[in-house]
Amino acid sequence: MSNTVCAVVVTYNRKDLLIKCIQSLISQTTKPEAIYIIDNCSTDNTPELLQQHNYLTTLPDKISDTFQSTTTIENILIKYIRLTENLGGAGGFYHGVKEAYTDGYDWVWIMDDDAFPTPTCLEELVPYYNLEDTVALASLKVDLDDNILYHHRGYFNFNHGLPIQEHITYEDTQTQTTDIDMASFVGLLVHRRAISQIGYPKKEFFIHTDDLEYCIRLRSVGKIKLINSSIIKHAEGSVQGTFKKTVLGITVDRRPYEKLWINYYMQRNLIWIGRKHSTNKISLYLTIIKNYILTIIGIIVFDDNKINRIRFYTNSYNDGLTSNFDNKKPRRILYKEE
């Protein structure tokens, strides 16, 4: 194969967004050879809607069964893979990248189901396929109103606390290409030679920062180029779910108790990445201690379910420090399940 592209789309209970994503991929001026849909065991009748749009020929007999189906639309192979349980975005990307790599594609184009490549998105990446020492290409990411999402493209800093990336700036978007260290899994095109060296996304992360961790590995074997003429839109549905609360004239964003699990994975995974990659361990652990204290103060001042929230965050910090990837723990803590 020569510069063949397989788009990998991970989905979970967002069937309408998924259809829009697939339609955006099929409408590319330069079409990918394949679209692999990794369904994290959706319960919203995703297969039925895919079948209505002719993206799926047969339906799985049982929700709990592993299921695969292939069809072809406009010379694009569409492969639907239904997992037997929800393994989160990280688990979905692990399986999708592995499947595309095993099937021999030269490039794996990674994205969520709420990502919508503009018509020339892939075409604008083609001229940069053979850049020296480059193992991945990233499209410029914008929201649905075309505002640049700077915080999803950036640079690493391993010498100051947690290795959270520094964001790109407006100036970075005014050049033809920009060398970056990190791009979220929304429009990241990865070459198979890099995958052969670093492997697949870390499925143990479940959700959040799996793209950050993977980009650290990518940068260890080559460059990531931001191609500013290639545009991908992102609905960013996953960031919804906070509310504002004011106490003593101070207004902050807070997470509802039932959505607290989102924060668990972020904290645990970031701490794990910091332990593995930070070059300044004193700064790292001081940052972890400071963040933990501020989190506890915030809970005491602003939140309900204070004791259980403190227990919840204490577990997320401890699990990051001890590399405990029990991804069912957040639910057990929140809902006091045995």
Description:
With about 350 residues, the protein is an alpha/beta fold. About 35% of the residues lie in helices and about 25% in strands. A hairpin with a 2-residue loop joins strand 14 and strand 15. Helix 6 packs parallel to helix 8 and helix 7 packs antiparallel against helix 8. The longest helix is centred in the last third of the chain and has 22 residues. It is globular, with a radius of gyration of 20 Å. The chain starts with a strand and ends with a helix. The relative contact order is 0.12. The mean pLDDT is about 90.
Beta percentage is 15-25%
Sheet of most strands: 10 strands, mixed
What's the total count of β strands?
A: 15
Helix and strand pattern: EHEHEEHEEEEEEEEHHEEEHHHH
Q: Mean pLDDT, as a whole number?
A: 92
Give the terminus-to-terminus CA distance. Answer: 50 Å
Oligomer: single chain
Structural class category: alpha/beta
| SS element count, helices | 9
Helix content: 25-40%
The rounded Rg comes to 20 Å
Shape: globular
Low-confidence stretches: none
What are its keywords?
15 strands; 338 residues; alpha/beta; 24% strand; three-stranded antiparallel β-sheet; globular; single chain; ten-stranded mixed β-sheet
Brief write-up:
With 338 residues, the protein is an alpha/beta fold.
